[in-house]
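Board notes, transcribed. Complex of a protein with zinc ion.
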Amino acid sequence: MDLQKNIEKYAQLVINTGVGLKKGQEVVLRSPIECAVFARAIAKAAFEKGAKDVQIQWKDELLDKIKYDYCDAEFFEEVPEWLALFNNSYAENNACFISIAGNDPDLLSDVDPKKVLNLNRASHKAFSKFYEKLDNGSLVWNIVSAPTKAWAKKVFPNDNEDTAVEKLWEAIFKAVRVDKDDPIAEWEKHNQSFKDKVEKLNSKQFVKLHYTNSIGTDIEIGMPKNHIWAGGGEYATDGTYFCPNMPTEEVFSAPKFDDVNGVVVSSMPLNYNGNLIDNFTFKFKDGVIYDYSAEQGLEVLHEIFATDEGSKRLGEVALVPYSSPISDMNILFYNTLFDENASCHLAIGSAYPMCVKDGLNMSKDELEKAGLNTSITHIDFMIGTSDLKIVGIQEDGTEVLVFENGNWAI
Ligand code: ZN
Ligand code: ZN
């Protein structure tokens, strides 16, 4: 593998397909210091495409960890003014925001969750212009990944650091189709297939989805009126076509928060802030999880379900074929960007407002009235298997096979 050449192809893909960069546009690039080689390649590709400027925000999670260890919870209730100004002003200027994710899945596992929550809340408040644009669909953004040593060792524990990093690069290239001759053309095809699926699903307007498989999943998930399926690239309000997540394999929507009945059994472990939850089962009645079990990590589930009312209900239903470049590798990445794209999944917690007609303009109350779940949390968990069957039921009772043997049937 020619690493440098693939990194350059990957960077081109991010700038062209990921954010659809326009001449004269500014780029805000967030990168771990360990991923500097990839960050520079992205910057170069951006300038080649006519970017006005590339502003880099270096991240160092070891430094974050030191701060979490030494500063008390109150410290995280505030965000420096200059940082707010930075993010808000670039967002207002229609810059695109690219983030390189490459976290050590275990590093923050023993940090007081209150500190993380405080920082999340404070950032949301301080970066209000940024989040406003993100929420109303006028911000162009993209998340990609590059290996860091700690992450690579977690995924490939039996290899030495260098080999693990190289293996993770190779896996990432495969997942984002950079191993192909022309990744940009591959993504055009990929996005077209998303469009086809999304159109079909939206036109059916299923009232229920019935999931069954041999490991014990048997659940009926109600769908709200005027729900919207989405997947692949999307249009920003100014018409820019961009791909927020690379890789992506999912077509997703929002379930009706009070109409979920039956049992789901996990098909992959869930890594929650460095804590593993494995072989778990959730039982639903009228949308609420009323009983649950787990072979590993049960106490973490107790904690999650204590977050708020919405944390015990579903906020996302996502369809991912069992055969895809990611799932075919059969690797647990300990990173949602990859793992959630390897399997059909559901999420407990908040629903995406875009998943119902006019949802982007709705208040929290209006979203709930429309049938969408609200919560401060959103956690994906994998339920796809090679024998998963999903039947969609239409208003008039017509049944349509959506998934068979783990793959698309529609
Ligand atoms: Zn998802
Ligand atoms: Zn999700």
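The first strand starts at residue 26 and ends at 32. The chain has two domains: 3-179, 196-230+249-408.
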